[in-house]
Protein backbone atom coordinates (compact mmCIF):
# COMPACT_ATOMS: atom_id res chain seq x y z
CA UNK A 1 0.00 0.00 0.00
CA UNK A 2 1.19 3.50 -0.82
CA UNK A 3 1.30 5.43 2.45
CA UNK A 4 0.14 8.67 0.86
CA UNK A 5 0.91 11.77 2.93
CA UNK A 6 -2.07 13.77 1.70
CA UNK A 7 -4.39 12.19 4.28
CA UNK A 8 -2.16 12.73 7.31
CA UNK A 9 -3.84 14.96 9.91
CA UNK A 10 -6.71 15.74 7.51
CA UNK A 11 -10.19 15.98 8.99
CA UNK A 12 -12.36 13.56 7.01
CA UNK A 13 -16.06 12.78 7.29
CA UNK A 14 -17.18 9.32 6.19
CA UNK A 15 -20.88 9.54 5.42
CA UNK A 16 -22.78 6.25 5.56
CA UNK A 17 -21.30 2.95 6.66
CA UNK A 18 -22.07 -0.43 5.11
CA UNK A 19 -19.01 -2.18 3.68
CA UNK A 20 -17.59 0.78 1.76
CA UNK A 21 -17.87 3.19 4.67
CA UNK A 22 -16.19 0.84 7.12
CA UNK A 23 -13.35 0.08 4.71
CA UNK A 24 -12.83 3.77 3.92
CA UNK A 25 -12.85 4.79 7.58
CA UNK A 26 -10.33 2.11 8.55
CA UNK A 27 -8.03 2.98 5.65
CA UNK A 28 -8.16 6.71 6.33
CA UNK A 29 -7.40 6.03 10.00
CA UNK A 30 -4.32 4.01 8.99
CA UNK A 31 -3.23 6.88 6.75
CA UNK A 32 -3.25 9.26 9.72
CA UNK A 33 -6.48 11.15 9.05
CA UNK A 34 -8.77 12.41 11.80
CA UNK A 35 -11.87 10.40 10.87
CA UNK A 36 -15.48 10.97 11.87
CA UNK A 37 -18.17 8.56 10.75
CA UNK A 38 -21.82 9.59 10.46
CA UNK A 39 -24.48 6.91 9.96
CA UNK A 40 -28.28 6.94 10.29
CA UNK A 41 -28.49 3.64 12.19
CA UNK A 42 -28.59 4.10 16.00
CA UNK A 43 -25.32 3.32 17.76
CA UNK A 44 -26.76 0.52 19.90
CA UNK A 45 -27.83 -1.35 16.74
CA UNK A 46 -24.76 -0.41 14.71
CA UNK A 47 -22.06 -3.06 15.04
CA UNK A 48 -19.92 -1.40 12.39
CA UNK A 49 -19.90 1.91 14.26
CA UNK A 50 -19.14 0.16 17.55
CA UNK A 51 -16.14 -1.56 15.96
CA UNK A 52 -14.84 1.71 14.51
CA UNK A 53 -15.23 3.47 17.87
CA UNK A 54 -13.05 0.80 19.52
CA UNK A 55 -10.40 1.61 16.89
CA UNK A 56 -10.33 5.25 17.99
CA UNK A 57 -12.57 6.63 15.23
CA UNK A 58 -15.21 9.21 16.13
CA UNK A 59 -18.76 8.05 15.40
CA UNK A 60 -22.01 10.01 15.19
CA UNK A 61 -25.00 7.71 14.79
CA UNK A 62 -28.76 7.81 14.67
CA UNK A 63 -29.10 11.15 12.90
CA UNK A 64 -27.34 13.55 10.53
CA UNK A 65 -26.70 16.87 12.33
CA UNK A 66 -27.38 19.85 10.09
CA UNK A 67 -24.28 21.65 11.35
CA UNK A 68 -22.03 18.62 10.95
CA UNK A 69 -19.69 20.27 8.45
CA UNK A 70 -19.07 23.25 10.78
CA UNK A 71 -16.43 21.10 12.46
CA UNK A 72 -13.85 21.95 9.77
CA UNK A 73 -13.89 18.86 7.60
CA UNK A 74 -11.60 18.97 4.57
CA UNK A 75 -12.94 15.90 2.76
CA UNK A 76 -16.16 13.87 2.64
CA UNK A 77 -16.12 10.20 1.62
CA UNK A 78 -19.68 9.07 1.04
CA UNK A 79 -21.44 5.78 0.43
CA UNK A 80 -22.06 5.57 -3.35
CA UNK A 81 -25.80 5.15 -2.85
CA UNK A 82 -26.19 8.50 -1.06
CA UNK A 83 -27.41 11.00 -3.65
CA UNK A 84 -25.83 14.39 -4.21
CA UNK A 85 -29.12 15.97 -3.15
CA UNK A 86 -28.50 14.72 0.40
CA UNK A 87 -28.34 17.83 2.63
CA UNK A 88 -24.87 17.09 4.00
CA UNK A 89 -23.47 16.25 0.56
CA UNK A 90 -25.06 19.35 -0.96
CA UNK A 91 -23.67 21.44 1.90
CA UNK A 92 -20.19 20.02 1.32
CA UNK A 93 -20.36 20.89 -2.37
CA UNK A 94 -21.52 24.42 -1.61
CA UNK A 95 -18.53 24.81 0.75
CA UNK A 96 -16.23 23.41 -1.97
CA UNK A 97 -15.29 20.45 0.19
CA UNK A 98 -14.29 17.49 -2.06
CA UNK A 99 -16.81 14.63 -2.03
CA UNK A 100 -15.32 11.22 -2.88
CA UNK A 101 -16.32 7.61 -2.94
CA UNK A 102 -13.91 5.00 -1.65
CA UNK A 103 -12.82 4.15 -5.22
CA UNK A 104 -10.72 7.32 -5.24
CA UNK A 105 -8.97 6.15 -2.06
CA UNK A 106 -8.46 2.73 -3.61
CA UNK A 107 -6.64 4.24 -6.56
CA UNK A 108 -4.49 6.57 -4.45
CA UNK A 109 -3.10 3.76 -2.26
CA UNK A 110 -2.86 1.02 -4.90
CA UNK A 111 0.52 -0.34 -5.86
CA UNK A 112 -1.15 -2.68 -8.34
CA UNK A 113 -2.44 -1.58 -11.77
CA UNK A 114 -6.22 -1.30 -11.85
CA UNK A 115 -8.68 -2.49 -14.50
CA UNK A 116 -11.95 -0.54 -14.32
CA UNK A 117 -15.13 -2.04 -15.78
CA UNK A 118 -18.31 -0.01 -16.15
CA UNK A 119 -21.49 0.07 -18.24
CA UNK A 120 -25.24 -0.16 -17.80
CA UNK A 121 -25.20 -3.93 -18.35
CA UNK A 122 -22.58 -6.66 -18.51
CA UNK A 123 -20.24 -5.33 -15.83
CA UNK A 124 -20.50 -8.29 -13.50
CA UNK A 125 -20.26 -10.97 -16.18
CA UNK A 126 -17.28 -9.24 -17.79
CA UNK A 127 -15.58 -8.79 -14.42
CA UNK A 128 -16.12 -12.41 -13.39
CA UNK A 129 -15.04 -13.82 -16.75
CA UNK A 130 -11.96 -11.62 -16.91
CA UNK A 131 -10.95 -12.56 -13.37
CA UNK A 132 -11.22 -16.28 -14.21
CA UNK A 133 -9.21 -15.83 -17.42
CA UNK A 134 -6.44 -13.87 -15.70
CA UNK A 135 -6.33 -16.37 -12.85
CA UNK A 136 -5.98 -19.25 -15.30
CA UNK A 137 -3.24 -17.29 -17.06
CA UNK A 138 -1.31 -16.80 -13.79
CA UNK A 139 -1.69 -13.01 -13.90
CA UNK A 140 -2.41 -12.72 -10.16
CA UNK A 141 -5.78 -10.94 -10.39
CA UNK A 142 -7.72 -9.57 -7.46
CA UNK A 143 -11.44 -8.80 -7.75
CA UNK A 144 -13.01 -5.67 -6.28
CA UNK A 145 -15.90 -3.25 -6.41
CA UNK A 146 -19.58 -4.10 -6.69
CA UNK A 147 -18.85 -7.78 -7.28
CA UNK A 148 -16.25 -8.44 -4.62
CA UNK A 149 -14.53 -6.82 -1.65
CA UNK A 150 -14.64 -3.05 -1.34
CA UNK A 151 -12.00 -1.63 -3.69
CA UNK A 152 -9.94 0.24 -1.10
CA UNK A 153 -9.84 -2.88 1.05
CA UNK A 154 -8.39 -4.84 -1.88
CA UNK A 155 -5.86 -2.26 -3.08
CA UNK A 156 -4.59 -1.64 0.45
CA UNK A 157 -3.11 -5.16 0.40
CA UNK A 158 -2.28 -5.43 -3.33
CA UNK A 159 1.29 -5.68 -4.59
CA UNK A 160 2.75 -4.24 -7.77
CA UNK A 161 2.77 -7.61 -9.59
CA UNK A 162 -0.99 -8.13 -9.14
CA UNK A 163 -3.94 -6.78 -11.16
CA UNK A 164 -7.05 -5.33 -9.50
CA UNK A 165 -10.13 -6.11 -11.61
CA UNK A 166 -12.76 -3.62 -10.46
CA UNK A 167 -16.46 -3.43 -11.29
CA UNK A 168 -17.55 0.22 -11.12
CA UNK A 169 -20.98 1.81 -11.02
CA UNK A 170 -21.75 5.35 -12.11
CA UNK A 171 -22.43 6.15 -8.45
CA UNK A 172 -18.87 5.14 -7.54
CA UNK A 173 -17.27 6.88 -10.51
CA UNK A 174 -18.96 10.22 -9.78
CA UNK A 175 -16.97 10.43 -6.56
CA UNK A 176 -13.54 10.24 -8.18
CA UNK A 177 -11.02 12.94 -9.06
CA UNK A 178 -7.69 11.38 -10.01
CA UNK A 179 -8.79 7.76 -10.50
CA UNK A 180 -7.03 6.32 -13.56
CA UNK A 181 -7.21 2.61 -14.38
CA UNK A 182 -4.55 1.26 -16.70
CA UNK A 183 -7.30 -0.49 -18.68
CA UNK A 184 -10.87 0.83 -18.74
CA UNK A 185 -13.84 -1.08 -20.17
CA UNK A 186 -17.13 0.62 -21.09
CA UNK A 187 -19.55 -2.15 -22.03
CA UNK A 188 -22.60 -0.10 -23.05
CA UNK A 189 -24.91 2.73 -22.03
CA UNK A 190 -28.65 2.50 -21.53
CA UNK A 191 -31.10 4.76 -19.73
CA UNK A 192 -30.86 3.95 -16.04
CA UNK A 193 -30.45 5.72 -12.68
CA UNK A 194 -31.86 8.94 -14.10
CA UNK A 195 -33.51 9.53 -10.72
CA UNK A 196 -29.96 9.70 -9.28
CA UNK A 197 -28.13 11.53 -12.06
CA UNK A 198 -30.91 13.79 -13.29
CA UNK A 199 -30.41 13.21 -17.02
CA UNK A 200 -28.98 10.76 -19.52
CA UNK A 201 -26.19 13.23 -20.28
CA UNK A 202 -25.12 13.39 -16.63
CA UNK A 203 -25.30 9.59 -16.39
CA UNK A 204 -23.03 9.29 -19.43
CA UNK A 205 -20.60 11.83 -17.97
CA UNK A 206 -20.38 9.77 -14.80
CA UNK A 207 -19.55 6.65 -16.82
CA UNK A 208 -16.94 8.61 -18.81
CA UNK A 209 -15.01 9.17 -15.59
CA UNK A 210 -13.66 5.63 -15.98
CA UNK A 211 -11.39 7.02 -18.73
CA UNK A 212 -11.35 10.76 -18.02
CA UNK A 213 -7.84 10.76 -16.50
CA UNK A 214 -6.31 8.10 -18.72
CA UNK A 215 -3.28 8.93 -20.87
CA UNK A 216 -1.73 7.50 -24.02
CA UNK A 217 -0.10 4.82 -21.84
CA UNK A 218 -3.52 3.44 -20.92
CA UNK A 219 -6.30 1.61 -22.82
CA UNK A 220 -10.03 2.16 -23.24
CA UNK A 221 -12.06 -0.80 -24.52
CA UNK A 222 -15.41 0.58 -25.65
CA UNK A 223 -18.61 -0.39 -27.44
CA UNK A 224 -18.25 0.75 -31.05
CA UNK A 225 -21.82 -0.43 -31.81
CA UNK A 226 -23.35 2.24 -29.56
CA UNK A 227 -22.97 5.75 -30.96
CA UNK A 228 -23.24 7.51 -27.61
CA UNK A 229 -20.42 5.39 -26.14
CA UNK A 230 -18.30 5.67 -29.29
CA UNK A 231 -18.73 9.45 -29.33
CA UNK A 232 -17.70 9.78 -25.70
CA UNK A 233 -14.74 7.46 -26.32
CA UNK A 234 -13.31 9.90 -28.84
CA UNK A 235 -12.79 12.36 -25.97
CA UNK A 236 -10.48 9.92 -24.18
CA UNK A 237 -6.70 10.33 -24.33
CA UNK A 238 -6.20 6.57 -23.93
CA UNK A 239 -5.36 4.12 -26.69
CA UNK A 240 -8.76 3.19 -28.08
CA UNK A 241 -9.75 -0.46 -28.43
CA UNK A 242 -13.22 -0.63 -30.02
CA UNK A 243 -15.30 -3.79 -29.81
CA UNK A 244 -18.14 -4.88 -32.06
CA UNK A 245 -20.29 -7.99 -32.32
CA UNK A 246 -21.62 -6.92 -35.72
CA UNK A 247 -18.78 -7.95 -38.00
CA UNK A 248 -15.03 -7.70 -38.45
CA UNK A 249 -13.25 -4.46 -37.52
CA UNK A 250 -9.80 -3.52 -38.79
CA UNK A 251 -8.86 -2.43 -35.25
CA UNK A 252 -9.74 -3.59 -31.77
CA UNK A 253 -11.70 -6.78 -31.18
CA UNK A 254 -14.76 -7.90 -33.11
CA UNK A 255 -16.92 -10.84 -34.09
CA UNK A 256 -19.01 -12.06 -36.97
CA UNK A 257 -21.26 -15.13 -36.91
CA UNK A 258 -18.45 -17.62 -36.33
CA UNK A 259 -15.14 -15.94 -35.53
CA UNK A 260 -13.56 -13.48 -33.09
CA UNK A 261 -11.00 -11.11 -34.61
CA UNK A 262 -8.15 -9.22 -32.96
CA UNK A 263 -6.90 -6.22 -34.94
CA UNK A 264 -8.72 -7.55 -37.99
CA UNK A 265 -7.12 -11.00 -37.89
CA UNK A 266 -8.86 -14.26 -36.86
CA UNK A 267 -8.15 -15.00 -33.20
CA UNK A 268 -10.49 -17.80 -32.11
CA UNK A 269 -13.63 -19.66 -33.13
CA UNK A 270 -16.84 -18.71 -31.33
CA UNK A 271 -17.67 -22.39 -31.01
CA UNK A 272 -15.41 -22.56 -27.93
CA UNK A 273 -17.63 -20.10 -26.00
CA UNK A 274 -20.00 -21.72 -23.50
CA UNK A 275 -21.77 -18.49 -22.50
CA UNK A 276 -25.04 -18.02 -24.47
CA UNK A 277 -26.34 -14.87 -26.14
CA UNK A 278 -25.11 -11.97 -28.26
CA UNK A 279 -25.00 -9.69 -25.23
CA UNK A 280 -22.64 -12.15 -23.58
CA UNK A 281 -20.53 -12.23 -26.73
CA UNK A 282 -19.90 -8.53 -26.10
CA UNK A 283 -18.79 -9.36 -22.55
CA UNK A 284 -16.49 -12.05 -23.96
CA UNK A 285 -14.97 -9.54 -26.40
CA UNK A 286 -14.21 -7.14 -23.54
CA UNK A 287 -12.60 -9.84 -21.41
CA UNK A 288 -10.58 -11.33 -24.26
CA UNK A 289 -9.29 -7.92 -25.37
CA UNK A 290 -8.15 -7.13 -21.83
CA UNK A 291 -6.49 -10.52 -21.48
CA UNK A 292 -4.60 -9.96 -24.73
CA UNK A 293 -3.44 -6.50 -23.59
CA UNK A 294 -1.90 -7.96 -20.41
CA UNK A 295 -0.26 -10.83 -22.32
CA UNK A 296 -2.45 -13.60 -20.94
CA UNK A 297 -1.73 -16.92 -22.71
CA UNK A 298 -4.25 -17.78 -25.41
CA UNK A 299 -4.69 -21.34 -24.16
CA UNK A 300 -5.78 -19.94 -20.76
CA UNK A 301 -8.34 -17.70 -22.47
CA UNK A 302 -9.80 -20.59 -24.47
CA UNK A 303 -9.84 -22.95 -21.48
CA UNK A 304 -11.98 -20.55 -19.45
CA UNK A 305 -14.28 -19.66 -22.36
CA UNK A 306 -15.10 -23.35 -22.72
CA UNK A 307 -16.32 -23.71 -19.13
CA UNK A 308 -17.60 -20.26 -18.07
CA UNK A 309 -21.41 -20.40 -18.15
CA UNK A 310 -22.33 -17.17 -16.39
CA UNK A 311 -22.86 -15.43 -13.07
CA UNK A 312 -25.65 -15.91 -10.56
CA UNK A 313 -28.76 -13.85 -11.42
CA UNK A 314 -27.39 -13.02 -14.89
CA UNK A 315 -28.97 -15.39 -17.43
CA UNK A 316 -28.02 -18.14 -14.99
CA UNK A 317 -29.09 -21.65 -15.91
CA UNK A 318 -30.51 -23.10 -12.72
CA UNK A 319 -31.84 -26.42 -13.94
CA UNK A 320 -34.35 -28.44 -15.94
CA UNK A 321 -37.55 -30.09 -14.76
CA UNK A 322 -39.93 -32.14 -16.94
CA UNK A 323 -37.99 -31.04 -20.04
CA UNK A 324 -38.50 -27.35 -19.19
CA UNK A 325 -35.37 -25.24 -18.62
CA UNK A 326 -35.23 -22.46 -16.04
CA UNK A 327 -33.01 -19.36 -16.28
CA UNK A 328 -32.53 -16.72 -13.60
CA UNK A 329 -31.83 -13.25 -15.01
CA UNK A 330 -33.02 -11.23 -12.02
CA UNK A 331 -30.24 -8.70 -12.63
CA UNK A 332 -32.15 -7.54 -15.74
CA UNK A 333 -33.51 -4.33 -14.21
CA UNK A 334 -34.06 -2.50 -17.51
CA UNK A 335 -35.34 -3.25 -21.00
CA UNK A 336 -31.88 -3.46 -22.58
CA UNK A 337 -30.93 -6.31 -20.25
CA UNK A 338 -34.22 -8.13 -20.87
CA UNK A 339 -33.90 -7.62 -24.62
CA UNK A 340 -30.45 -9.21 -24.48
CA UNK A 341 -31.72 -12.13 -22.41
CA UNK A 342 -34.71 -12.82 -24.67
CA UNK A 343 -32.45 -12.65 -27.72
CA UNK A 344 -30.20 -15.34 -26.29
CA UNK A 345 -32.91 -18.00 -26.71
CA UNK A 346 -34.58 -19.54 -29.74
CA UNK A 347 -36.88 -21.89 -27.79
CA UNK A 348 -40.44 -20.86 -26.85
CA UNK A 349 -40.19 -18.57 -23.81
CA UNK A 350 -42.30 -18.11 -20.73
CA UNK A 351 -41.21 -14.70 -19.45
CA UNK A 352 -41.47 -13.64 -15.82
CA UNK A 353 -41.35 -9.84 -15.72
CA UNK A 354 -42.33 -6.77 -13.74
CA UNK A 355 -41.20 -4.92 -10.64
CA UNK A 356 -40.60 -1.36 -9.49
CA UNK A 357 -42.45 1.17 -11.65
CA UNK A 358 -40.13 4.00 -12.68
CA UNK A 359 -42.33 4.89 -15.63
CA UNK A 360 -39.96 3.39 -18.20
CA UNK A 361 -41.41 2.26 -21.52
CA UNK A 362 -41.17 -1.41 -22.51
CA UNK A 363 -41.36 -0.61 -26.23
CA UNK A 364 -37.73 -1.54 -26.85
CA UNK A 365 -38.73 -5.17 -26.19
CA UNK A 366 -41.44 -5.28 -28.88
CA UNK A 367 -39.26 -6.60 -31.76
CA UNK A 368 -38.02 -9.45 -29.53
CA UNK A 369 -41.35 -10.72 -28.14
CA UNK A 370 -42.22 -12.98 -31.08
CA UNK A 371 -41.13 -16.22 -29.41
CA UNK A 372 -42.52 -15.28 -25.97
CA UNK A 373 -45.58 -17.54 -25.65
CA UNK A 374 -46.53 -16.67 -22.06
CA UNK A 375 -45.92 -13.69 -19.79
CA UNK A 376 -46.31 -13.93 -16.01
CA UNK A 377 -46.23 -10.39 -14.63
CA UNK A 378 -45.86 -9.28 -11.03
CA UNK A 379 -44.89 -6.24 -9.00
CA UNK A 380 -45.89 -2.59 -9.45
CA UNK A 381 -45.62 -2.81 -13.24
CA UNK A 382 -47.62 -6.04 -13.51
CA UNK A 383 -50.69 -4.52 -15.17
CA UNK A 384 -48.64 -2.25 -17.41
CA UNK A 385 -46.32 -5.07 -18.54
CA UNK A 386 -49.32 -7.37 -19.08
CA UNK A 387 -50.96 -4.75 -21.31
CA UNK A 388 -47.71 -4.35 -23.26
CA UNK A 389 -47.38 -8.13 -23.70
CA UNK A 390 -50.92 -8.41 -25.06
CA UNK A 391 -50.20 -5.59 -27.52
CA UNK A 392 -47.23 -7.63 -28.77
CA UNK A 393 -49.49 -10.58 -29.53
CA UNK A 394 -48.61 -12.72 -26.52
CA UNK A 395 -51.69 -14.93 -26.22
CA UNK A 396 -51.36 -16.00 -22.60
CA UNK A 397 -50.74 -13.32 -19.99
CA UNK A 398 -51.30 -13.89 -16.28
CA UNK A 399 -50.64 -11.90 -13.12
CA UNK A 400 -48.85 -13.21 -10.04
CA UNK A 401 -48.50 -11.89 -6.51
CA UNK A 402 -44.80 -12.54 -6.17
CA UNK A 403 -42.02 -14.93 -7.22
CA UNK A 404 -43.38 -17.77 -5.09
CA UNK A 405 -46.66 -17.45 -6.98
CA UNK A 406 -45.17 -16.70 -10.43
CA UNK A 407 -42.98 -19.79 -10.84
CA UNK A 408 -45.67 -22.48 -10.37
CA UNK A 409 -48.06 -20.49 -12.58
CA UNK A 410 -45.37 -20.35 -15.27
CA UNK A 411 -44.66 -24.05 -14.97
CA UNK A 412 -48.37 -24.96 -15.25
CA UNK A 413 -48.46 -23.14 -18.60
CA UNK A 414 -45.26 -24.72 -19.92
CA UNK A 415 -44.69 -27.64 -22.27
CA UNK A 416 -41.69 -29.86 -22.94
CA UNK A 417 -39.01 -27.87 -24.75
CA UNK A 418 -40.02 -24.51 -23.28
CA UNK A 419 -37.75 -22.16 -21.36
CA UNK A 420 -38.92 -20.26 -18.28
CA UNK A 421 -36.94 -17.05 -18.02
CA UNK A 422 -36.97 -14.59 -15.13
CA UNK A 423 -35.89 -11.31 -16.75
CA UNK A 424 -37.97 -8.63 -15.06
CA UNK A 425 -36.97 -5.49 -17.00
CA UNK A 426 -37.56 -3.63 -13.72
CA UNK A 427 -35.79 -3.05 -10.43
CA UNK A 428 -36.80 -5.21 -7.47
CA UNK A 429 -37.35 -2.66 -4.72
CA UNK A 430 -41.14 -2.66 -4.87
CA UNK A 431 -41.21 -6.15 -3.31
CA UNK A 432 -37.63 -7.22 -2.52
CA UNK A 433 -34.57 -5.59 -0.95
CA UNK A 434 -32.39 -6.52 -3.94
CA UNK A 435 -32.39 -8.28 -7.30
CA UNK A 436 -30.35 -11.02 -5.60
CA UNK A 437 -33.18 -11.73 -3.18
CA UNK A 438 -35.67 -11.82 -6.06
CA UNK A 439 -33.44 -14.27 -7.93
CA UNK A 440 -32.94 -16.43 -4.85
CA UNK A 441 -36.71 -16.71 -4.41
CA UNK A 442 -37.01 -17.72 -8.07
CA UNK A 443 -34.46 -20.48 -7.46
CA UNK A 444 -36.25 -21.58 -4.29
CA UNK A 445 -39.58 -21.73 -6.14
CA UNK A 446 -37.95 -23.83 -8.88
CA UNK A 447 -36.58 -26.23 -6.29
CA UNK A 448 -40.01 -26.43 -4.61
CA UNK A 449 -41.55 -27.67 -7.89
CA UNK A 450 -39.43 -30.80 -7.70
CA UNK A 451 -40.48 -31.81 -4.19
Automatic annotation (TrEMBL):
Q: In which pathway does it act?
A: Cell wall biogenesis; peptidoglycan biosynthesis
Write the Enzyme Commission number(s) for this entry: 6.3.2.9
Which intervals hold domain Mur ligase central? 117-291
Specify where it is mainly localized: cytoplasm
Q: Which GO terms describe its molecular function?
A: ATP binding; UDP-N-acetylmuramoylalanine-D-glutamate ligase activity
Question: What Gene3D superfamilies does its record include?
Answer: Mur ligase, C-terminal domain, Mur-like, catalytic domain, NAD(P)-binding Rossmann-like Domain
Q: Which of this chain's residues are annotated to bind ATP?
A: 119-125
Q: Which UniProt keywords apply?
A: ATP-binding, Cell cycle, Cell division, Cell shape, Cell wall biogenesis/degradation, Cytoplasm, Ligase, Nucleotide-binding, Peptidoglycan synthesis
Give the reaction(s) catalysed: UDP-N-acetyl-alpha-D-muramoyl-L-alanine + D-glutamate + ATP = UDP-N-acetyl-alpha-D-muramoyl-L-alanyl-D-glutamate + ADP + phosphate + H(+)
- Supply one GO BP term: cell division
Gene Ontology CC entries for this record: cytoplasm
**First-level EC class:** ligase
List locations, semicolon-separated. Cytoplasm
Asked whether the keyword ATP-binding is assigned, the reply is yes
Q: Cross-referenced PANTHER family, in alphabetical order?
A: UDP-N-ACETYLMURAMOYLALANINE--D-GLUTAMATE LIGASE
Instruction: Write out the similarity annotation.
Output: Belongs to the MurCDEF family.
Protein name stated in the entry: UDP-N-acetylmuramoylalanine--D-glutamate ligase
Q: Which organism is it from?
A: Kurthia zopfii
Q: What is the lineage of its organism?
A: Bacteria, Bacillati, Bacillota, Bacilli, Bacillales
Amino acid sequence: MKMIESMKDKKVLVLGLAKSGVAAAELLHKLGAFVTVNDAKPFEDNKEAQTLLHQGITVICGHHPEDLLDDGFELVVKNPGIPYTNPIVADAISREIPVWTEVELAYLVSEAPMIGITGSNGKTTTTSLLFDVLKEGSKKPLIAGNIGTVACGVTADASADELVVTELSSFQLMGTESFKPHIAIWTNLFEAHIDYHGSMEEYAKAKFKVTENQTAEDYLIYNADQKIVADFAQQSKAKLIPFSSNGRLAEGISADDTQIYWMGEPYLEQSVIALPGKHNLENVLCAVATAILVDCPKDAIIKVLKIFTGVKHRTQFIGEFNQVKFYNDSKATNTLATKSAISAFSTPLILLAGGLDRGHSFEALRPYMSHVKVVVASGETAERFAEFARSCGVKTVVLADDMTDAVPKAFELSEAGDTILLSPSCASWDQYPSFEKRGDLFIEAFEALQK
